[in-house]
């Protein structure tokens, strides 16, 4: 199940580039929350708090309980972090989108899939573990949303595979992908044929014409 994390936020009274620049100088990140049949609401959160939260996240789906302060009043709203914008060079968080959710309504999400263990075909026979599906589209209640789907591949031999229908999902989680889609496959090792080195071409034999030996001089008497 996805971890439920508390995060303090405040309503953002001013929008626009100049207001955003002022927030950055104060170590504050602009944000927005939308969804759950309500109007989008501009927010602001501490840069330190949101960066700490993201650094400890395991998967992409982070369930957050926002404690929103507005003119001295506080209200709690459940949300998923939908999108995070980072500065290209420094990597600092520039903006966060929160998607408000109802804990009693199912939602759809894409969950990362990761292998666990070393496949027999890889360990003993030099096979190659291929992963065809990196994430799985699922439907569930927010409380049942997994951070990641871990699949044990240790029993796979050469030619064996795991399909979507073979994955045991947590209670309350339904896969929306085609059940016959291949997720993992152990392929046979690639055999490289050794090419014999090319023989150097033999130089043609040059046959020289035999020279006639000079006649012997007559013996003196």
Explain what the structure shows.
The chain is mainly beta. The chain folds into two domains: 4-100, Beta Barrel (Ribosomal Protein L25, Chain P), CATH 2.40.240; 107-187, Ribosomal protein L25, C-terminal domain (RNA Polymerase Alpha Subunit, Chain A, domain 2, Beta Complex). The protein is 11% helix and 41% strand. A six-stranded mixed beta barrel has the order 1-3-2-6-5-4. Strands 10-7-9-12 form a four-stranded mixed β-sheet, with no helix packed on it. Strand 4 (63-70) and strand 5 form a beta hairpin. The chain is elongated. It starts with a strand and ends in a 34-residue tail after the last strand. The mean pLDDT is 87.
Salient structural properties:
221 residues, mainly beta, RNA Polymerase Alpha Subunit, Chain A, domain 2
Strand portion: 35-45%
Number of strands: 13
Output the structural class.
mainly beta
Measured distance between first and last alpha carbons: 126 Å
Instruction: Note the overall shape.
Output: elongated
Average pLDDT, to the nearest integer? 87
Radius of gyration: 35 Å
Main sheet summary? 6 strands, mixed, barrel
CATH class categorisation of the largest domain: Mainly Beta
- Percent of residues in helices comes to 10-25%
């Amino acid at each position: 199940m996805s971890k439920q994390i508390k995060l303090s936020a405040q309503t953002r009274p001013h929008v626009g580039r100049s207001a955003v620049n002022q927030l950055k100088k104060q170590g504050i990140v602009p944000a927005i929350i939308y969804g759950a049949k309500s109007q989008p609401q501009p927010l602001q959160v501490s840069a330190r708090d949101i960066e700490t939260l993201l650094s400890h996240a395991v998967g992409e789906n982070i369930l957050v309980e926002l404690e929103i302060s507005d003119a001295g009043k506080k209200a709690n709203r459940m949300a998923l972090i939908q999108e995070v914008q980072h500065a290209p060079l420094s990597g600092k968080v520039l903006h966060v989108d929160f998607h408000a959710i109802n804990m009693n309504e199912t939602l759809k999400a894409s969950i990362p899939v990761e292998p666990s263990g070393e496949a027999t075909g890889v360990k003993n026979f030099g096979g190659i573990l291929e992963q065809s599906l990196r994430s799985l589209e699922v439907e569930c209640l927010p409380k049942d949303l997994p951070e990641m789907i871990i699949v044990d591949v240790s029993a796979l031999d050469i030619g064996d595979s795991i399909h979507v229908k073979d994955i045991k999902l947590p209670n309350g989680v339904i896969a929306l992908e085609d059940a016959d889609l291949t997720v993992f496959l152990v392929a046979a090792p690639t055999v490289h044929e050794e090419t014999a080195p090319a023989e150097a071409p033999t130089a043609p034999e040059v046959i020289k014409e035999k020279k006639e030996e000079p006649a012997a001089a007559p013996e003196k008497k």
